[in-house]
Amino acid sequence: MPELPEVEITRRGITPALINQNITNVTIRHANLRWPISDRLDQLLVGQRIEAITRRAKYLLLRCTRGFLIIHLGMSGSLRISFDSASVEKHDHFDLKVSSGAVLRYRDPRRFGAILWSDAEKIAQHPLLVNLGVEPLSDAFDGKILYERSRHRSLGVKVFLMNHQIVVGIGNIYANEALFHAGINPTVLAKRINLKRYEKLADAIKTTLNAAIEAGGSSLRDFVNSEGKPGYFQQHYWVYGRDNQPCKRCGQSITKIKQGQRSSFYCRHCQR
Q1: Choice among 12, 34, 49, 262 that is catalytic
Q2: Number of Cβ atoms within 10 Å of the Cβ of 154
Q3: 6 counts as catalytic
Q4: Is the N end or the C end of the chain the one with fewer CB atoms within 10 Å?
Q5: 11, 58, 63, 105: which one is catalytic?
Q6: Closest to 57 measured CA to CA, from 43, 40, 42, 70
Q7: Does the annotation count 3 as an active-site position?
Q8: Within the chain, which residue ranges are assigned CATH 1.10.8.50?
Q9: Percentage of residues in the chain with pLDDT exceeding 90?
Q10: What are the C-alpha distances in Å from 159 to residues 133, 172, 253, 261?
Q11: Average pLDDT for 82-103
């Protein structure tokens, strides 16, 4: 699943071709995504201007003249900038064409993403957005927030980090990597970690996410950027997917366990 770095890379990739452009055409080939695409979406969008493209958690928000187009990539979705001459492939479900001739094309083999509309006055209270936690790359995110929100939380710290009502967009890969760099065992109860260690963890989260963005994200299965190119951060994993391989820091074997139905990877020697 595309996590925060992959969604942010997508946002940066599509913005130059779409910003300040008028929407001239909308094509819906397959409406049945996680939630059906409205059959009125073309009527709503055509004629509107794309004023800004932002990100909230793993949602892309295209701010238009009268509201917001909300896009979620789901498990296997991707967005590319194409042109009319580009051939349409099997899993290309949605096109948005702008006045320059550029086409924003949504591809999703598993159809678990979403393309939704929200009126401008309703966006702040949209059900998908209203309960989201702090953005980990924002100035508002620090160790103090993690410390305060973890009190009385009797669950493993990695599971705690992946609660999108606490902090958004980290995801399994980056939670594993950040915990390694902070030297924290993923099974330690969130409420047992002191402020100093949470400050180190918050710094590790920001460093890990920024490094992933610089590397173009992680491409384990489906993710490609707006130019159709994969990311390379998976080449720099310290623990994720490296079970039974030697730790790059101490040489001891990386351990794999299950937490909340997700795999956790860590070094028993380096992470306490």
Answers
A1: 262
A2: 9
A3: no
A4: C
A5: 58
A6: 70
A7: yes
A8: 143-267
A9: 88
A10: 15, 9, 22, 10
A11: 91
Q: How many residues does the chain have?
A: 272
- Which region, left, alpha or beta, applies to residue 31 given φ > 0 means left and ψ of -120 to 50 means alpha? alpha
Q: What's the chain look like in SS3?
A: CCCHHHHHHHHHHHHHHHCCCEEEEEEECCCCCCCCCCCCHHHHHCCCEEEEEEEECCEEEEEECCEEEEEECCCCCEEEEECCCCCCCCCEEEEEEECCCCEEEEECCCCCCEEEEEEHHHHHHCCCCCCCCECCCCCCCCHHHHHHHHCCCCCEHHHHHCCCCCECCCHHHHHHHHHHHHCCCCCCEHHHCCHHHHHHHHHHHHHHHHHHHHCCCCCCCCCCCCCCCCCCHHHHCCCCCCCCCECCCCCCEEEEEEECCEEEEEECCCCC
Residue type, 61: L
Q: Which of 2, 5, 136, 186 is catalytic?
A: 2
Q: What is the pLDDT of residues 37-65, one digit of tens each?
A: 999 999 999 999 999 999 999 999 999 99
Output the six-digit token pair for 120.
Answer: 């401008």
User: Does residue 135 have an active-site annotation?
Assistant: no
Q: What pLDDT was estimated at residue 224?
A: 57
Q: Cα separation of 45 and 210, whole Å?
A: 33
- Between CA 82 and CA 95 the distance in angstroms is 9
Q: How confident is the model at residue 226 (pLDDT cuts 50, 70, 90)?
A: low
Fold classified for 143-267: Helicase, Ruva Protein; domain 3 (1.10.8)
Pairwise CA distance, residues 54 & 63, whole Å: 8
Q: Is 58 a catalytic residue?
A: yes
Look at the domain 4-125 and name its fold. Answer: N-terminal domain of MutM-like DNA repair proteins (3.20.190)
Task: Report residue 191: phi and psi, to 5°.
Answer: -75, -15
